[in-house]
Amino acid sequence: MRDETLMIASMVVALGAAAGLTGAAAQTYPSRVVQIIVPTSAGSSADILGRVLADGFSSRLGKPFIVVDKPGANGVLGTADVARANPDGYMLVHGATYSITVQPLIDKQAGYTLKSFTPICQTFKNDQVAVVPPNSPLKTVRDIIDAAKRKPGALNVAIPGIATIPHLAMIALADQAKAEFNDVPYKGPAEEMQAVRSNQIDFAVVPLTAAAGSGLPMPGIFAEERNPALPDVPTFKEQGYDIAPLSYGGLLGPAGMPADVTAKLEAACVAIMKSDAAERVAKHTMQPAGYFADRAGFAKNLATDTAEKNRLVPLLHVQ
Questions:
Q1: Residues 6+ apart with CB under 8 A from 245
Q2: What is the pLDDT of residue 4?
Q3: Cβ-contact 186, 260 below 8 angstroms
C-alpha cells in the first residue's frame, strides 16, 4: 500500500512539474531566434506577408523572427521540415495550405498529413476567376456549361498545372454540372493569360490577381461572395454552381506545440494582421472578405478543405 501511495505521489509531482514547464514555456517564449519557413520563392505573396509577420512578431515578442525561403516540390520541402521539427515554436511555416491539403494526397513521399501541424492563424485567401478571350460568346457560366455539353471534351480550358487549385475547381465544376472539359496545363497564370488574349484557348481559370486589370471578360469567380476588388463579377455560386475551392494559407507549427505558446503566437498574429502593413498587402493581393481567421477558424477551414480535397483528388486520376 505504501509503495502504491509513493507511486501516486510521484505521478502527481511529475504532472505538476510538466504543467509548470508548459507555463514557463509561454513566459520565456521566445528566448532565441524563431524561423518562419516559406515554402515558395522570395517575392511570392506568402513571402511578402511572411516578412510582415516576422517584423510584427519581432517587435511584439522581443526576439528575432526571420523568414527562410525554401521552395521545392510544390511546397513539400519546406513544409516537411516544419512537420519534423521540435514542437517548441522555434520553427513555423507560412504558406499556402495546398501543400498540406492536396500534396500528401498525390505525393505519398510527402511524409506528413494535416495532423502533423498546429494551426496558428489564417492570413490570406486567393479567389480564382474564369477569363475568356475578347469577343468570346461565353459571357456567363451557363454559356460555358452549355458549350461543354454540346461538344463534350471540345471546350479547352487553361489551368496552371495538374492538381492545382484552379484545376480542382474545374474538376468540381465538371462533376457538379455533369459536363466534360479539355483541361490544358500551362506553366503558370502569365502563360494562361497570353493564351486567352491570343484566342488560343476557350477560357482559363487563374488567380484573381493575374486577371485583374487585364480588360478581359470574366464570366464568373470561384468564391463564396463577390470580391470587393471586382464587384461586378458574379460568383459561380450565384449562377447555379456552388463551387468555391479554398486557395488560402497561413501560419502553422509542428503538431504538439504547447497550447500557451500557440496562444501567444495567435494573439500576436491577430494584432499584426490589423496593422497598416498587413492591410496594404491585403489590398494589393485583392483579399476577399473574411480572408483572415484565428486559430479556431483556421483549423475549421483546414478540416473542411481537407475533406473536400479528399473527394476531388481521386477524380484527377493522378495517384
A1: 128, 165, 168, 169, 172, 222, 308
A2: 37
A3: no
Closest CA to 251 of 308, 303, 288, 292: 292
The span from the CA of 155 to the CA of 83, in Å, is 41
DSSP labels, 68-97: EE---GGGHHHHHHHHTS-TTSSEEEEEET
pLDDT band at residue 222, thresholds of 50, 70 and 90?
Answer: very high
State the amino acid at position 145 in one-letter form: I
Q: Where are the domains of the chain?
A: 31-126+247-316, 128-222
In Å, how far from its chain's centre is CA 265? 19
What is the pLDDT confidence band of residue 19, given thresholds at 50, 70 and 90? very low
Return the HEC string of 212-265: CCCCCCCCEEECCCCCCCCCCCCECCCCCCCCCCCCEEEEEEECCCCHHHHHHH
DSSP per residue, 278-319: HHHHHHHTTPPTT--B-HHHHHHHHHHHHHHHHHHGGGG---
Indicate the pTM of the whole model: 0.86
From residue 287, give the alpha-carbon distance in Å to each of 38, 129, 137, 207.
Answer: 19, 13, 29, 11
With contact defined as beta carbons under 8 Å apart, do 159 and 185 qualify? yes
CATH no. of 128-222: 3.40.190.10
Same fold for the domain at 31-126+247-316 and the one at 128-222? yes
Q: What amino acid occupies position 247?
A: S
31-126+247-316: CATH topology: D-Maltodextrin-Binding Protein; domain 2 (3.40.190)
**Distance (Å, whole) CA 185 – CA 218:** 19
Nearest one of 39, 33, 67, 40 to 53, comparing CA atoms:
67
Per-residue pLDDT at 236 exceeds 90: yes
Residue identified by cell 497564370 is: 189
| Identity of the amino acid at 223 | A
